[in-house]
Amino acid sequence: MSDPMAVLAMTGATTVVAAMATSVWEGTREQVVDLFRRRDEDRGAVVRTQLDGDAELVSGEEDETVRDDLVRPWARRLAALLRDHPEAADELRALVEDSDGSRDGGTWSQHIAARAGGAAFGAQGPGSSIHVHHHRPAAGDAPA
What we know:
By secondary structure, this protein is mostly helical. The chain is built from five helices and two strands. A two-stranded antiparallel ribbon has the order 1-2. The longest helix is centred in the middle third of the chain and has 21 residues. The N and C termini lie far apart (about 40 Å). About 20% of the residues are buried. The model has no long low-confidence stretch (mean pLDDT about 80).
């Protein structure tokens, strides 16, 4: 993947999917919809529906496989957009740069749960700390 536009599309897709279960999701979603409106106004509505469906899949799933499965289709969509509208590259780069919250001092939040004696680990962005949560069932609790 040496083509700079392909690299940008993959980076953008990874950023979009990573943001789906975080506090920056609403803003990221609107930036992506705006990018795709370049094709036509109706395309923005279709993309919003796709994003909402994918975000629902991510929020209900603790397994990273779902996220991994979503990156490639979004990379293809973004690559096609960049092929048709190379001027969208600057906006996509800005989306990637803005997503870490460092530009405006913002923060990301993420809900991570451990169940049935499991452990959950979470970290986000540069300089983040790792929080380890262990769930120890109380006496009489049935495993989930």
